Amino acid sequence: MPTGVHLRDARQQLFDAAERVLLRDGPNGLTSRAVTDEAGCAKGVLHRHFTDFDAFLAELVLDRAAQLETQASALRAAAGTGTVAENLTSALTTLFGPVPVAIIPLITFRDELRARLRQARPGGGIAILAQAATAISGYLADERDRGRIAADADIDSLTLSLVGGGHLLFADRDPGPPPTAVVGRFVAGVVADSVQRRPG
Questions:
Q1: CB neighbourhood size of 111 (10 A)
Q2: Does the pLDDT of residue 8 top 60, yes or no?
Q3: Which of 11, 33, 170, 200 would bridge 96 by S-S if both were Cys, CB 3.0 to 4.6 A apart?
Q4: CA within 13 Å, CB half, 127
Q5: Where are the domains of the chain?
Q6: How is domain 1-49 classified at the architecture level of CATH?
Q7: CA 25, CA 139: separation in Å to the nearest integer?
């Protein structure tokens, strides 16, 4: 890599390389050497832009979490259209795509990374799951306001059920993501009571 590469380009190249290593080799395979080898650059390039590897990982997670916030906006925009179960099924499939699902164990097993995420963003120690929860909660509240789920629906409990259960469905990356029909049945089971009890 030429030394004159713009900082932003170098950062993005390193982030993309880390994502590829993470998807291919899992959290244990994600080292600074693996990232720079994948990016095709000298190891010093990473340390020129980040104070250490945990700082790099924190920036990577925050960058990917910001992408989820865009997807969360799309979910909120879907409120009032389609069915609640269809919208949530689509959202879980997006929010728990391959990259977010690969990042979650990375955060879980690196104490220093969690600490840095908490410093960067209050409540951000478990980024990705936090973004998913915010997206689902906001969407459910919008649907409740529209009368498409029961006025007394417990949004917090529904959110925890959908995010926790959704993560379990998508967590095993080896066979690939669960079929949409499986996700749809899970979502329908979680929200069925709240949808059925809405005003007629």
A1: 11
A2: no
A3: 170
A4: 31
A5: 1-49, 53-196
A6: Orthogonal Bundle (1.10)
A7: 34
Task: Count how many residues are written for the chain.
Answer: 200
Contact 108, 119 (CB under 8 A): no
Long-range contacts of 166-173 (CB under 8 A, 24+ apart): 166/92, 166/95, 166/96, 166/132, 167/96, 167/101, 167/104, 167/129, 167/132, 169/92, 169/96, 170/92, 170/96, 170/101, 171/101, 171/104, 173/98, 173/101, 173/102
pLDDT tens for each residue of 90-145: 999 999 988 888 898 888 888 899 889 888 876 666 778 888 999 999 999 999 99
Do residues 105 and 27 make contact, with C-beta atoms less than 8 angstroms apart?
Answer: yes
- Top CATH class of 53-196 equals mainly alpha
H helix runs in 27-178, sequence order:
32-39, 43-49, 53-77, 84-95, 98-109, 111-120, 129-145, 155-170
126, 64 in Cβ contact below 8 A?
no
From the CB of residue 36, how many other CB atoms can be counted at a distance below 10 Å?
21
Nearest to 146 by CA among 92, 95, 87, 93: 87
Beta strands in the chain (DSSP E): none
pLDDT in tens, 140-192: 999 999 999 999 999 999 999 999 999 999 987 667 789 999 999 999 999 99
